[in-house]
Design a protein that fits this description.
single chain, Rossmann fold, GMP Synthetase, Chain A, domain 3, 3 domains, seven-stranded mixed β-sheet, 21 helices, globular
Length: about 650
């Protein structure tokens, strides 16, 4: 970009971790930052001892930018580290508590999860899956999704998990790119009371794919499905008589553990490749330090296994630590809008990790719902997925955490594999809206166009200056895209995240959102996150999204989509008031040209706003495919409002 992203929104509030929390925190010594900076390689080398190795590594790091190799020649297995090593002391401890949308419950101790994984691994072997084969997993939030991941890892078959809510086209695209010969799916599942015919969607997607040998089908919803002879097999049939012992395959530290497809701004999704050893060390460490995992915790991350958060902080990170995880199949608003709070109360959840989108939605539904439930078991809250505005952060801290729970606001990406910027809950003062500081061992910086660090308070490119163990290894089948997307800007040895950020006078990092979520008004580059935060700071607003609309004079003007609190009526007076509010908070240049009052925004099933669709609506363009939206009807409604109907 020609000019740096401008940053004008200021926040001053600082909150210290509760004293009692700090005393017992896993990380309570601030010296950890200094030690990690003095010798990052030694720092990660020491942390690798928390993982069980079949053969010890003989070199910590081989860094030939942009490629890194970590813990060279070490041999280990991810499934072994999540299961086998806990059997002696934690065999009877709960590993998974699962609740279905319909209220069905299922639990697995570590011993039972080990048995289920070994049997699933033997089924995969019976199907012909061999070490190195990429297996596509297309399952909803059921225990078999986690078991399938662990089973693939156990036999050395990289997994590629596709979010169950994705369309058949998205499945076909990912299976084709991965050259996957084996697919795991289910008959169906329920979402907000409606049957989702997953097998039918799988069949439709695989019509466009050649080379798939077998489809393994999990029986879950008991809906009628078609089974293709010679290709489709039921899991429960193949499990008959299968041994519950399956040796864990020794994997080289740099062997691929999984592919994770992430959408680019243009073109087809990128298959991000993650290795085994470096990823496990990173996942173990961040889960332990950021979430302060204790042996008696009940940990709930509300993400889906179809996303990287579900890999690192539902499956691998917590299970590496021997934690108890809660998995919930359904939505936060079904059958009622208090479902999450009732689950926290029921299972006495202690750690709750969710997305700002969900938090803003909870805010809109009001304080009364969480107040009707006993949330006193909670001791730590987390935020993930996008920058959280200060007002939503404070609501979360006060209404859900009762002002007693530290909030870890985490920044990271599919490509990083691990949390990169966060507070450490026992030692870091919290600033609502800031992701805080880089995790120990990570050098996060904000750079200008030339690669120089920007002055305090100025916006720039968020970048990482040093290698880290769980970093992306390549883009599957497209090394050129790997170089161009992440490493081409500053000479090939600095990772470009694609996000904008600023650093304040205390060294805290404020993430401003994607650099492709920037509006250029009369030569000024304005980050959407700051404008949205400004709007949400008004007491009448519960959620906001802004987009740029082409303008002959200014290049672009700002159009804001605003969701109001339930008790607030939209009016021209309020519209003018909100425009003035943004101008006062950020500056006149950020004043929206128009404000559209909306009931909802176009969102994916995981709750993320589909910026591409919102931008198309704003500019009167074709919105394209809306099959991955949880609320496709909102598109036509917004079109009418933008058109002035």
């Amino acid at each position: 970009m020609d000019e740096m992203i401008e940053s004008s929104l200021k926040e001053q509030l600082v909150l210290n971790p509760p004293e009692g929390f700090s005393r017992s925190a896993n990380i309570s010594d601030p010296e950890i930052y200094r030690r990690s900076e003095e010798d990052p390689e030694k720092f990660w080398g020491e942390l690798s001892k928390n993982i069980d190795w079949f053969e010890e590594w003989d070199q910590i790091l081989d860094w030939k930018p942009p490629h890194s190799k970590w813990f060279l020649n070490g041999k280990l297995n991810a499934s072994y580290n999540c299961l086998d090593r806990h059997l002696q002391n934690k065999k009877d401890k709960l590993a998974i508590i699962w609740e279905g949308e319909d209220g069905a419950e299922k639990t697995y101790t570590y011993g039972e999860l080990y048995d289920a994984t070994c049997r699933f691994s033997n089924v995969l072997k019976k199907m012909g899956v061999e070490k190195g084969d990429i297996v596509t997993i297309y399952l909803p939030m059921i225990p078999e999704a986690v078991i399938a991941m662990l089973a693939c890892a156990r036999i050395g078959a990289p997994h590629s998990v596709v979010f169950a809510g994705f369309s058949h086209e998205a499945l076909a695209q990912r299976v084709t790119d991965a050259k996957s010969e084996y697919v795991i799916t289910c008959d169906g599942y329920h979402h907000k009371g409606k049957l989702q015919t997953q097998k039918e969607k799988t069949d439709k997607g695989l019509e466009k794919v050649s080379g798939v040998k077998e489809v393994l089908v999990v029986q879950h919803a008991n809906n009628e499905i078609d089974m293709k002879p010679g290709r489709d097999v039921w899991l429960h049939y193949l499990l008959h008589g299968v041994s519950n012992e399956c040796p864990a395959e020794p994997m080289d530290s740099e062997d691929t553990l999984f592919l994770m497809y992430t959408s680019g701004t243009t073109g087809k999704p990128k298959g991000v490749v993650h290795s085994t050893g470096g990823y496990l060390v990173s996942a173990y460490t961040t889960a332990n330090w950021v979430f302060d995992l204790k042996d008696d915790d009940i940990y709930w991350c509300t993400a889906d296994v179809g996303w990287i958060t579900g890999h690192s902080y539902i499956t691998y990170g917590p299970l590496l630590n021997g934690a108890t995880i809660l998995i919930y199949e359904g939505s936060p608003d079904y059958p009622g809008k208090a479902r999450f709070w009732s689950l926290i109360e029921k299972y006495k959840v202690t750690i709750f990790y969710t997305a700002p989108t969900a938090i803003r939605m909870f805010m809109k539904w009001g304080d009364a719902l969480p107040q009707k439930h006993d949330l006193s078991s909670l001791r730590l809250l987390g935020s993930v997925g996008e920058p959280i505005n200060p007002r939503a952060w404070l609501w979360y801290y006060e209404q859900i955490g009762g002002k007693r729970c530290p909030v870890v606001d985490t920044w990271w990406q599919t490509e990083t594999g691990m949390i990169m910027i966060t507070s450490l809950p026992g030692i870091t003062p919290m600033k609502p809206g800031s992701a805080s500081k880089a995790f120990p061992g990570i050098k996060a910086v904000v750079l200008d166009e030339a690669g120089n660090e920007v002055p305090v308070g100025k916006g720039g490119y968020l970048a990482i200056k040093n290698p880290w163990p769980s970093m992306i290894r390549t883009v599957h089948g497209n090394e050129e895209r790997f170089h161009k997307t992440y490493w081409s800007k500053w000479g090939g040895d600095i990772y470009m995240s694609g996000d904008g950020a600023r650093v304040d006078e205390d060294g805290y990092i404020w993430v401003l959102g994607r650099l492709d979520d920037v509006i250029k008004v009369a030569g000024h580059r304005l980050g959407t996150m700051e404008i949205e935060s400004s709007l949400v700071s008004h007491p009448a607003v519960t959620e906001a999204a802004v987009e740029g609309k082409a303008d002959e004079i200014k290049g672009e003007v700002i159009v804001a989509y605003v969701i109001l609190e339930a008790y607030v009526e939209p009016s021209d007076k309020l519209r003018d008031e909100l425009k003035a509010h943004v101008a006062d908070e950020i500056g006149h240049i950020a004043r929206p040209a128009d404000i559209i009052f909306a009931e909802d925004l176009p969102k994916t099933r995981s709750g993320k706003i589909m910026r591409r669709i919102l931008k198309a609506i704003t500019n009167g363009e074709d919105v394209g495919d809306v099959t991955t939206l949880q609320n496709p009807d909102i598109v036509e409604e917004l079109k009418r409002k933008v058109g002035g109907e």
